[in-house]
Amino acid sequence: MAVLTHGVTQRLASEDAIDEAVAEMRINGYTILDSGLPADVIERLKSGIDRIYQAQISEFGDEQALASISDTDIARCTLAYDPDFLTLATAPNLMKLATRLLGSEFVLMQQNGIINRPDRQNYQVKWHRDLSYQHWTSSKTIAFNALLCVDEFTNENGASFVLPATHHIEEFPTDQFASRHEKQIAARAGSFIVLDAMLYHRGGINVSTDVRRAVNHLIGLPFLAQQVNLQTALESTGMPAPTDPNVLKYLGFRWSPATHAKDWRERRMPSR
Ligand SMILES: O=C(O)CCC(=O)C(=O)O
């Protein structure tokens, strides 16, 4: 049913569910989006996070070494280890939302598996922006996070908290504001909790008896820097590079800095 308005000459588009998600993102700074991925893929991602984390512990020495850099319980750059994570990062609903929020050019800045255990300290429970250390606002979305709930997110197992609309304000609010207005987002397995990358958020404390897993994506305009160069990351693990030119662009192959002046010019040749 149409709402009544007065003196309104400009409105957000409202053609479909993705437009509604965009409206929530622009105004509240968060929304929930169905990934559309089948349950068996979600199950494989669950074991994939655990497997990749164990592999990365071995790569780095031991878990104590990860603890020394405050990086326990995060499986980094997961798509370089298992093709299911590329399927996830390119889920059609996610790509549609990215196009509506950011336009035709956007890059995957990070993809990390997050393990929230009941019996451990978790660095993500502190309020933060994913574009961390930044205290300014932008009238347009420049980046967003898509946190896939691999397990169902419940109030008990540490579902994420958000501070709605804080992407519009430069400073972190007061302690009282944060405790009064924080909102916990329960969501079913297979959905993305999507946040403007400038929205303050935090993980919840897991007081259940089960591990809560998620996969976070940071997707943004190409001028932002990737955490890991995905081209070299794929080469390092021996995973084949995708062939779809749009996926290559999304993974940053086109946007990585040129290696020298001639490379920069060659990249601009029409045949490339
Ligand atoms: O695990 C969560 O609920 C939040 C994760 C988070 O804050 C992040 O990855 O930036």
Automatic annotation (TrEMBL):
Cofactor(s) the protein requires to work: Fe(2+)
InterPro entries, alphabetized: Phytyl_CoA_dOase-like
GO molecular function annotation: 2-oxoglutarate-dependent dioxygenase activity; iron ion binding
This protein's record includes keyword Manganese: no
Source taxon at top rank: Bacteria
UniProt keyword annotations, A-Z: Dioxygenase, Oxidoreductase
Name the UniProt record assigns to this protein: Phytanoyl-CoA dioxygenase
